[in-house]
Write a structure and sequence with these properties.
Blueprint lengths: L2 H17 L5 E3 L13 E8 L10 E10 L6 H12 L2 H24 L4 H11 L3 H11 L4
Antiparallel strand pairs: 1-2, 2-3
């Protein structure tokens, strides 16, 4: 993996974040439920923006299937909803900026080294703070282990 890979993932993140509903996002504290459902059961919604002044409802970004707040099984729905809400576009864009900054530092260092590509990569990985973490991030982004 190289600085070009960091730039490619940053561009992918930026494209998806710029196409998404602007943040910040939050988990709606009120679950929506059809009439007749128990109070503790409903759909978790990730919402964005300010509440509508008339209805009080915020714009829905995404929602889960029904979740029971008292169910061990559905605790994951709540954790997933909080995680999704925290990864709103502004956060993704900050990560893209970080990847680009690491790529720039790698390019600057590579330009000063006369060694072969494998040696340059080793020197860069051991001398740029966050480089190996950035490579780990893009491996995870690509679904690699």
């Amino acid at each position: 993996m190289t600085a070009d890979d960091l730039r490619a993932v940053a561009a992918d993140i930026r494209e998806k974040a710029n196409a998404a509903t602007p943040g910040p996002w939050a988990v709606d504290p009120d679950r929506w439920a059809p009439p007749g459902w128990r109070e503790e059961v409903g759909y978790l919604r990730i919402v964005a923006g300010e509440p509508n002044p008339i209805s009080g409802i915020r714009q829905k970004v995404v929602s889960t299937d029904g979740a029971d707040s008292g169910s061990d099984h559905d605790r994951l729905h709540y954790a997933d909803a909080r995680h999704i809400a925290d990864w709103h576009p502004a956060v993704a864009l900050a990560v893209a900026d970080w990847l680009l900054a690491v790529a720039l530092r790698a390019d600057e260092m590579a330009a000063t080294l006369l060694n072969g590509p494998e040696v340059r990569e080793h020197i860069i990985a051991n001398n740029i703070t966050g480089y190996s973490q950035a490579l780990g991030f893009i491996k995870a982004w690509w679904g690699e282990s």
